Amino acid sequence: MNDFKKYSAILFILSFLMISGCKETIFGEKAPNIDQQFPVIPPTDARSIEFIQAVPVWTGFNHPEDVMVGYDNLIYVADTYNNRIVQLDINGTVLGTISVPKPVAIAQDRKLDLLVAGRKDTTVGGNTISLACLYRINLYAVNHRISEATAKAVVVHPNYILGRTFRVSDSSQYFTGVATLADNSYYVTRTGPSNGDITQPGGPDNNILVFGSNDKFQTPLTSYLTATGTGKASANMLTGITTYAVPPQRANVDTRRSFLTCLKGENSFRVQGMRYSSGREDVAYLPDPNLDFSDTTVGHRFLYDSDPTDGTVQSIFVSPEDVTYTADRGYILVVDSGTDSLYQFTSNGVEGILPPTYSNDRKNIIVSFGGRGNGVKQFNDPMGIAYYQPDKIVLVADAGNNRIVRFALSTDIK
Questions:
Q1: So what's the pLDDT on residue 47?
Q2: Which of 8, 31, 294, 317 has a CA between 20 and 30 Å from the CA of residue 61?
Q3: Sheet of strand 151-156: strand arrangement
């Protein structure tokens, strides 16, 4: 072998040995480990998938009982004990306020009018009493400057019911929720002490009322709901309602007339869904079968689960106050003042979210949270919940702590 061939052979052997014994390339990067499988699976940590609280919290309220994201992408707060509605942008900057007596629920229709459930003082027989009232606030007429708008009382109990005379007990009836539909008609939830006579005009006090976009009373849902029932078609002390027609404004807003409600009466199912159907001759509201789902291979807990540990059949909820639906994710979100918690379910009632592709979990990962307090991810009587779709932010009216708190799933944080 000549000198050139010897030199080439030695150089080849040295190069092979250097490459074999070194873990870095000439650029300082780690060389691939040929013993590893491909692709590399990241470690699984389901606990890292959770709601993260944003800071700062929004303060300056007095027992806020509802928060709502409008079709105009603005935030509205029912600042209940301050007797006003507060308008904010997504950064929490207050844009204006308007006086409304004891507001407890807010909705916005697609005309961008606000509908607010509150109270109205009325003189009857020389006495001043407080009655349930629904106010309409036309924002378009004032270029969305809420401080320049007027809150017009459009539905005062019991004046909207034909043939219904005034009773002393009318001061004990309340509008507790309002939810709009794609055609700007809307539902109002009503509670009160008179539930024995289902034939009375307007139906029993525990009821859902249907109004047209012109604020004319159309019908109570007495035929489909029981005022004091314990089943899945109940109006037993309703506290909140939402439809599937939710912001943002878009051409394909859901046109279903179905709805979700929450109630705190003695009931085994305190968050419920009712499906609307119509035929040639009649219409019907029936319990939504999609929510009656309990496949334990998919989830750990379900919307219609019961907890019999105390000897009775009782809902996993104690006092659910509000419910909302996220159109982009298909989530059902509930706040419960009895457990001081926020609960998240899928559109068919499975608690939690789908596990990520890298996870070893096969069941939904529960991200519900809460507990009494004023710290991070704690509540004191949460009363309202809303969802801002563009940024995937959940807002909660934390009434007992006089604040609005915001959350995002860790998987949504960039």
A1: 57
A2: 317
A3: 105-108, 114-124, 127-137, 151-156
Tokens 């308007």 map to which residue?
98
Question: Which pLDDT band, with edges at 50, 70 and 90, does 307 fall under?
Answer: low
Per-residue pLDDT tens over the stretch 160-174 = 998 888 888 899 999
- Tracing tokens 């789908």 back to the chain, one arrives at 354
Does 57 score more than 50 pLDDT? yes
Helical H segments across 74-132, by residue range: none
Residue 192: count other Cβ atoms within 10 Å of its Cβ.
20
Token digits of residue 287: 């319990």
Angle at 298 between CA 295 and CA 303, to 5 degrees: 60
Q: Where are the domains of the chain?
A: 47-412
Angle at 62 between CA 377 and CA 109, to 5 degrees: 85
Contact yes or no for 135/197 (Cβ under 8 A): no
pLDDT at 17: 44
CATH number of 47-412: 2.120.10.30
* C-beta pairs of 145-154 under 8 Å, 24+ apart in sequence: 145/95, 145/96, 146/85, 146/87, 146/95, 146/96, 146/97, 146/98, 147/96, 147/97, 147/98, 148/96, 149/98, 151/85, 151/98, 151/99, 151/100, 151/116, 153/120, 154/215
Rounded to an integer, what distance in angstroms lies between the CA atom of residue 93 and that of residue 78? 16
Q: How confident is the model at residue 102 (pLDDT cuts 50, 70, 90)?
A: very high
This prediction's pTM? 0.87
Q: Kindly tell me if the per-residue pLDDT of 381 is higher than 50.
A: yes
Cα–Cα distance for residue pair 179/139, rounded to 1 Å: 18
Q: Does 182 have pLDDT greater than 90?
A: yes
Contact 109, 213 (CB under 8 A): yes
Of 276 and 413, the one with more pLDDT: 276
DSSP string, 235-274: -TTEEEEEES--SSP-TT------EEEEE-SS-S-SEEEE
